Amino acid sequence: MADDTPAQGELPRGSLPANTARIIRFAVDIAETPPDRADFLHSVLCQVGLPRRETKAFTFERTNGKASILIEAGKLWNGKNWIQQPIPYGTRPRLALVHVSSEAVRSKSPVVEVGRSVREFLMRLEVDTGGREYATFKKQMKALSACRMSLGFGTETVDAKPIERFSAWTDGSGDRDPLTPCVVELTPKFFASLTEYAVPLDARALAALRHSALALDVYTWLAHRLHRVQRVSGERISWKNLREQFGQEYADPKNFKRKMLSTLMAVRAVYPDAKLDQVKGGFVLLPSKPPIPKTVVQVRAIGTP
User: Each residue of 275-291: pLDDT tens digit?
Assistant: First the structure.
């Protein structure tokens, strides 16, 4: 089932659906107020995302041009047994990866505390921080920590398991176990690659799109891709290309096209500098400003997290 539903307890505002009202609110804020901080995600994960729906399989592959990702589910030791973990999917592991990556980049450390910081992150995204939501995040963080991740570049394969060590959360309330440090430690390879290839993202856009894994993927892709377009005439991308990259979960091309068009409307609302024109057979990507100016990234790099 697609992870595109409103968060628990969220009620519509006025006559608009809750997700639409939230997007409009953040779109107005983004249009009127410059960002004061940047979140981050690895450039490869901006091009090839995790599964959007739950899968019973223990491996997952996604390819975009010369970039490819292979995820293999793993197991975690609970003190008595090895417990099989699922493949991470949906919005929660995407947001978790952004959170962990952002904290690592800002602190310049592969060791990230994920106790109170995750609760604060959920609150910033306006996600319910009650037991059920915290438990869902815990489950996805466990899946992330256990999985193996390989990245493909052309003919090169890189072992990019993101999490070296995971020790956090003992219950759904988020209370800390005093005997267990609440930290996530990134692998040296992933941390080194992240610090070199981190893509700055507007935290408000992530908050606006947090209901949809597809919207998060499209936003991070455009944030990575558009400001790299050099030709004034732009770069063409076909519907076939888009479906190969984003439509793996859609059996009917028409359903994917409808979903993609509505998703692009939401994404462009919170990334107003994104320039792309719909043409016959696809889109033309045009040179655009990144969602986070370089000055903001530089200020955050030398300032406090």
Answer: 999 999 999 999 999 99
